[in-house]
Specification:
A hairpin with a 5-residue loop joins strand 5 and strand 6 (98-104). This protein has helices at 51-57, 241-247; strands at residues 3-11, 17-20, 68-69, 76-78, 87-92, 98-104, 109-116, 120-129, 138-144, 156-158, 161-164, 183-186, 189-193, 207-209, 212-222, 225-233, 269-270, 277-279, 296-301, 310-317, 328-330, 338-345, 357-360. Strands 3, 5, 6, 8, 13, 14 and 16 form a seven-stranded antiparallel β-sheet that branches. A five-stranded antiparallel β-sheet has the order 17-20-1-22-23, with no helix packed on it. The chain has a five-stranded antiparallel β-sheet with strand order 4-7-15-9-10, with no helix packed on it. Helices cover 4% and strands 35% of the residues. It contains two helices and 23 strands. It folds into two domains: 3-23 and 239-360, no CATH class; 46-167 and 179-233, Sandwich (Jelly Rolls), CATH 2.60.120. The protein starts with a strand and ends in a 5-residue tail after the last strand. It is globular, with a radius of gyration of 22 Å. It has 365 residues and is mainly beta.
Length: 365
């Protein structure tokens, strides 16, 4: 049976990287990169008490294994500026997936209640639908029992998805400049743990919930969203490569003469419309290459430098099994520094070693 695999590359540090053709367990003394060197602007935040400090203060707090889901049909909504109100109904995305969810407008605060039998630290899993808006990133604040538990909870981001209007190769003519495809937003159901999209923390955010009735409030900052599920849970730890191989020992390694080149400029989905195919002329090793002709033969570079931005590719394989993945890349932007990326296969980081892949500076492929 053929398998379709989605390979996602996520930028973790703000260094450009051109593509062609794990998170470690949290340590109590872990310190994030300094915010003055990040894209965060503290003037928009109410506090400077960050997630690392929160985890240090809750080092010994229990992390219950039970899961709890919020009833999204019962809520309190305040502060909306327009006649745009929450609505719980069935929503269908661009892939034809039907799910029930609650529409949350761009303005106002919406509060849900959830009863928790065991007090402790929980991760929050969210199923959401990136409904039509203005095309900007979706930002919400997340309060537990009427307060932000740490600085980063004031700005939680949810990704949008973009796709090329057409494949570059479909309109390619030898001897003529390639046409650059426009970017079309795809409105899709997606699931995610509430986590740092900047790459500064090694684990998803934890939140403290007391025993009994708790309030969870989403504070709207930018763009509407549809929420299909909010669940309290514990994230799965990412195994080491050795552990991963041991768990997959009964899955055969595909040794057939299988070699499928994926042209990187023809991505499946991108998290930003700026992640267009690009043309590189610096070497004939780029494919395709025509002297003096504008051929879109790569993706990334200067435009792929914002932490949290993702590019994914889709590949169809002949059968289930273990495959090698090779990338043809060039990182010639930051001399003496490494560009860092995280790799997911079908939505998950398979093992720790690919959650923090470093690409060293090199002036050529």
């Amino acid at each position: 049976m053929k398998k379709i695999t989605i390979v996602i590359i996520i930028i973790m540090l703000a260094l450009p990287l051109i593509f062609f053709g794990t998170r470690n367990d949290f340590k109590a003394n872990y310190q994030p990169l300094p915010y003055e060197s990040s894209a965060l602007d503290l003037q928009f935040y109410e506090s400077d008490y960050n997630f690392a400090e929160f985890m240090n203060d809750h080092e010994d707090t229990i992390r219950p294994k039970k899961e709890f889901s919020i009833n999204l049909e019962t809520f309190i909504y305040n502060g909306g500026l327009f006649d745009d109100l929450p609505e719980h109904k069935t929503y269908v995305d661009d892939l034809g997936v039907f799910k029930n969810g609650i529409y949350i407008p761009e303005t106002g605060d919406i509060t849900f209640e959830i009863e928790v039998s065991d007090a402790g630290l929980y991760n929050i899993h969210v199923l959401y639908y990136s409904i039509l808006g203005r095309g900007a990133s979706i930002n919400k604040g997340l309060k537990i029992n009427n307060e932000y538990q740490f600085l980063e909870a004031e700005r939680i981001s949810f990704q949008r998805f973009w796709k090329d209007e057409f494949k570059v190769s479909e309109k390619r003519v030898k001897g003529i400049d390639d046409l650059r495809p426009g970017q079309i937003e795809k409105h899709l159901w997606a699931s995610s743990l509430v986590e740092d999209d900047m790459g500064y923390y090694d684990i998803p955010y934890y939140f403290y919930f007391k025993k009994g009735i708790n309030k969870l409030t989403l504070v709207s900052h930018r763009e509407p969203i549809v929420i299909g599920e909010i669940k309290l849970c514990q994230h799965k730890s990412i195994p080491s490569y050795k552990e991963y191989l041991a768990a997959k020992k009964n899955i055969p390694v595909v040794k057939d003469d299988f070699n499928v080149p994926i042209q990187a400029e023809e991505a499946y989905l991108k998290s930003a419309p700026t992640l267009n195919p690009i043309a590189e002329f610096s070497t004939y090793k780029y494919e395709p290459y025509e002297k003096y002709i504008n051929k879109y033969n790569a993706i990334g570079g200067y435009y792929w430098r914002i932490p949290g931005e993702e590019i994914s590719w889709q590949v169809e394989v002949p059968k289930e099994g273990m495959y090698l993945i090779n990338f043809k890349i060039m990182q010639n932007f930051s001399r003496g520094k490494n560009a860092t990326r995280s790799l997911k296969v079908n939505g998950e980081v398979p093992f720790k070693e690919v959650n923090d892949i470093e690409f060293k500076y090199k002036s050529d492929l």
